[in-house]
Design a protein that fits this description.
Elements lengths: L1 H24 L6 H22 L1 H13 L5 H25 L6 H12 L1 H20 L9 H17 L12 H18 L2 H21 L1
Helix pairs in contact: 1-2, 1-6, 2-6, 4-8, 4-9, 5-6, 6-9, 7-8, 8-9
Amino acid sequence: MKNKITKTLFTYLFLSLILQMILIGIKNYETPIIYTLGTISNNILVLLAVSFINRYEIKEMFNKFKKKPAKNLKKNLIIWMIGFILMMVANYIIIIIIPEGSITNEILVREMYSKYLIASFISFIIIVPMIEEIVFRLSFNNISNKYLYLISSSLVFSVLHSLGSINNLISIIYILPYLILGITFGLVYYRSENVFDSISIHSLHNLVVLICYIIF
């Protein structure tokens, strides 16, 4: 159990860091074409690596999912809508407590959406949900206790997404929206026992967020 979690997490973090450093080292990497190709290539490499570690489970789950892809759709959408509302409430609470604050991850994502729309769409709607559901949901699935599974996988998910924003005790609250989101995706995975269900909901969530960023 621990071995699979450790291997998947380490591979994800190590490759993400190294590949990002390589991309930043490329001359004129911020030009749209170089950034788009570099970002998509990096994400694909990370996806291939974490998929290889969990390849047998992914293959089995995909075979089940493709037979009845809409089997759990209605219940999954209900879980997501509740989680989305709670996440919005959490963001509102953060605005009240820290009016001038913003989560670093959200700032970076918003900037990427505004500068590199194609890279953002392909990465955050298609590739990143696959990576993160394999890393934060599938790799933790040997934890048999439902609540321990949800808490541990969601905590790791939320801390890694908000780590750059935590600089004092009160800023720990930045974890809350991602914790809610992690529990939401975790519930979808846990009740369906299929990572492609949580990937679908994660992709939908990111699409809705992208649309909101474009409109607002």
